Amino acid sequence: MKNYTITVNGNVYEVTVEEGTTGAAPAAAPAAAPKAAPAAPKAAPKAAGAAGSVTVAAPMRGKILAVKAAAGQAVKKGDVLAVLEAMKMENDIVAPQDGTVASVNVAAGETVETGATIATLN
Asked: Is residue 2 a contact partner of residue 17, using CB atoms and an 8 Å limit?
């Protein structure tokens, strides 16, 4: 028997293959359960101060349609900070945690690249 680690679409599978000497196909083994995928990285913290300690980044390139939050505003996890249009779809950019908006780094009509800072929270 040989053990292999196979990655399919980001899912890691541990499989065991039995070596056969006959031409007949071996019985199918039950599918191995995927390993737990690593948790998505949290927003990278920045130095405390005017910028805020939690960065909210653009998940994809697009155009900012609306800014729904202002500096100094208290927000809860899931509150919409901005609306980003990408591929003809509107995507709500939400607060990853409760906090206060430290800065808003975009304006309506502005185009942003993937990873661009939309806002920061304290």
From this structure: yes
Query: For the whole model, what pTM was predicted?
Result: 0.57
* pLDDT, tens digit (0-9, with 9 covering 90-100), for 57-101: 999 999 999 999 999 999 999 999 999 999 999 999 999 999 999
- Nearest-angstrom CA–CA distance, 15 and 34: 10
CA distance 73 to 54: 15
Write a three-state SS string for 24-55: CCCCCCCCCCCCCCCCCCCCCECCCCCCCCEE
Give the max Cα distance, the chain.
72
Q: Report how far residue 122's alpha carbon sits from residue 47's, in angstroms, rounded to the nearest whole number.
A: 11
| Bridge partners (DSSP) listed for residue 62 | 112
